[in-house]
Every structure is written in C-alpha cells, then in structure tokens.
What we know:
By secondary structure, the chain is of the alpha+beta class. It has 2 helices and 4 strands. A hairpin with a 4-residue loop joins strand 2 and strand 3. The longest helix is centred in the middle third of the chain and has 38 residues. This is Transcription elongation factor 1 homolog.
Amino acid sequence: MGKRKAAKKPGKKAKLQPLDKIFRCLFCQQAGAVHCKLDRQEMVSRIECSRCAQWFETKIDHLTEPIDVYSLWIDATEQANRPQANASSSAHRTTNNHREERERPTSTRNTQSADKQRGHEAGAGNDYDPFEEADDDHPEDLPDDLF
Length: 147
C-alpha cells in the first residue's frame, strides 16, 4: 500500500496596501500637499492643494475613494489642456484620410481596368491571383454586424 500524499499548506495571502489619501499636486509638484475631502451626505468631493490653492470639486457616489477623485482631477486637467492640441491634429488627420481615399480604387471597375492594363484578362492565365492585392477591401464595404 502506498503512502498518502500530504496536503499542501495554504500560502500566505498578500496584504492589501491602503490607498493613498494624500497626493502630489499637478501644478506645483509638491508631494503630500493635496488633500481630498469626501462629503458623503452632499455627495460632493473637493480636492485641494495646501501650497498653491488649486482645487477641484466633483460629484461622487457611495463607492468613490480619494484616489478616484484624484484620477478625475488628472483627467479634467488633461482635457482642459487638450482642445488646443486637438484642433490642429484633427485638421491634419482629415487631410491624411482624404489623401488615402484618393489613392485607393473605389470600385471593382477600377481594379478590373487596372488588371487589363497589366495584361491580365479574366481566365486568361493561371498566374493571376485575385487575392494578391488587398486594395479592394474597404472598411465601409464590410457588413456592420461583424464587430
């Protein structure tokens, strides 16, 4: 008779680190200067820097923690700085998209005429591969229910 295998002892559980409640200021870069106050009765939170007096208020719910409010403050600051950059980059993007659309053939008639110019006739030879060029697959030609 064989010997029973010994059961493994359960491993140690990792202790959860407490979430930060004091943060670095986004404007003056002072560590430990930003404090968050959650008013659960009014469902409002205020995060404020004690050094440069920058502050941010937002509505909260019962699950919101100070780190969530700090993340919202970061997002709001980035969004406030973003409109100047988006105006120039969106114009650049539309120019690039317009240029790309002009370079691609827009119908199968254009690809058939291009094949004839290259000497490929439908069924004329075995060396023609219809899947050789991927230019005929446009995102607007795909059905909407794929994704």
